[in-house]
UniProtKB/TrEMBL annotation:
Protein name: CDP-glucose 4,6-dehydratase
Pfam families: GDP_Man_Dehyd
PANTHER family hit by this protein: DTDP-D-GLUCOSE 4,6-DEHYDRATASE-RELATED
Residue ranges constituting the NAD(P)-binding domain according to the UniProt record: 20-333
Length: 371
């Protein structure tokens, strides 16, 4: 791997920084920890065991301190925080699946709301903590099924337990931001800045979670049981996992640099022109890996699709200069080639994908690639 430490990405703020990541055994968390360590951060992960088998974290060479624990366990969290003394906390641990949240609302609310409360309490007791970045979702917005994107100051909502738990967690975060980490008392009574970062569904190599289109298609194609696609015209804002992570790292950088205006909510999503439907996704995947197999069952009548939600990312663009690096074709290409290499060659492309992503971002002149 190219030496990212010398490249001074994100102005080099992560070099030697003590960063605690909750949910490090998960899909996004493992990519996040990988990138952080390559920039010289000292990382401690805190999480329940990997939610899938196989799991991305077991496939990559990750030099971090890994603690297996539940975020609802205050005592254990406090111990780990007191011992590791993090300066930055990326809080990602969650029950992240909408379908499962219908079956297990208790677990979902407990983990996503009470678990987050426990993380914030651990932060409150730990003097070293200066920056808290909590990963939420585009689903926190009350969905009006508009054609235009949601902005950070739109009303929060959520009809299913997952969305509601994440919206509730945002409201709780706001109460911490006012009650304990109030900006007016920043630098005198406390030294903590808090941000929430909202992104939509992401894709990328190493995701084996249930009910996600690409992992499902890959598994079925490998097993020789092509899945039937009943909603070929559904569109989703597809985005590679490295895109929101570059946004989270940018917000982290600004908080580390004590720029108070970034202690707020930020959206990170693909450009609004990047919507493609499921059938187009499948055609693209097959273009890059001909083993991909599926059957399309075309509906007689194409109904309006409920629930499509887009993010307006103007705030991230204007305040941070953040934009996505890859278009949807590249996001799909790097995702499916990751699985192809894994299943056909037993080779892991995480390092290569990260290097390509960074060099493409440099070519585009993105702010986080400059010192
Ligand atoms: N993947 C997406 O498309 C997507 C989209 C929007 C938001 N998010 C958010 O991003 C974050 C990461 O999601 P992901 O896709 O990596 O999911 P994931 O299921 O792969 O990872 C979730 C992580 O949280 C951990 N975890 C779950 N319950 C826990 C508990 N009680 N205590 C400690 N750890 C616990 C799991 O072990 C795992 O490490 C979540 O907050 C999720 O809501 C993900």
């Amino acid at each position: 791997m190219e030496n990212l430490v010398d490249q001074n990405l994100f102005s080099g703020v992560y070099k030697g920084k003590r960063v605690l990541v909750t949910g490090h055994t998960g899909f996004k968390g493992s990519w996040m920890c990988y990138w952080l360590t390559k920039m010289g951060a000292e990382v401690c992960g805190y999480s329940t065991p990997a939610p899938s088998d196989p799991a991305h974290i077991d496939k990559i060479d990750l030099n971090i301190r890994s603690v297996i624990g539940d975020i609802r366990n205050q005592e254990k969290l406090d111990e780990v925080f007191a011992d590791f003394k993090p300066e930055v906390v990326f809080h990602m641990a969650a029950q992240p699946l909408v379908r499962l949240s219908y079956k297990e609302p208790d677990e979902t609310f407990e983990t996503n709301v009470i678990g987050s409360l426990r993380v914030y309490e651990a932060c409150r007791k730990t003097e070293s903590v200066e920056s808290i970045i909590t990963i939420t979702t585009d689903k926190v917005y009350e969905n009006h099924e508009w054609d235009w994107g949601y902005r950070e100051n739109d009303r929060l909502g959520g009809k299913d337990p997952y969305s509601a738990s994440k919206a509730a967690m945002e409201i709780m975060t706001n109460s911490y931001r006012h009650s304990y980490f109030n900006l007016e008392k920043y630098g005198t009574d406390h030294q903590v800045l808090m941000a929430t970062v909202r992104a939509g569904n992401v894709i990328g190599g190493g995701d084996w979670a249930l009910d996600r289109l690409i992992p499902d298609i890959v598994e079925a194609s490998i097993a020789g049981n092509p899945v039937s696609i009943r909603s070929p015209y559904s569109t989703r804002p597809w985005q590679h996992v490295l895109e929101p992570i570059s946004g989270y790292l940018m917000i982290g950088q600004k908080l580390i640099e004590k720029e108070t205006k970034f202690g707020e909510a930020y959206n990170f999503g693909p450009s609004v022109t990047e919507d493609v439907n499921v059938e187009e996704v499948l055609i693209t995947l097959k273009k890059y890996w001909d083993k991909i197999d599926y059957k399309i069952e075309r509906p007689d009548v194409v109904l309006h699709e409920a629930g499509l939600l887009k993010l307006d990312c103007t705030k991230a663009y204007r305040n941070l200069g953040w934009t996505p690096v890859w278009n949807v074709d590249s996001a799909l290409k790097y995702t499916i080639l990751w699985y192809k290499e894994y299943y056909e060659e037993k080779d892991i492309q995480t390092e290569k994908d990260l290097n390509t992503y960074i060099s493409d971002a440099k070519e585009k002149g993105l702010a986080w690639t400059k010192s």
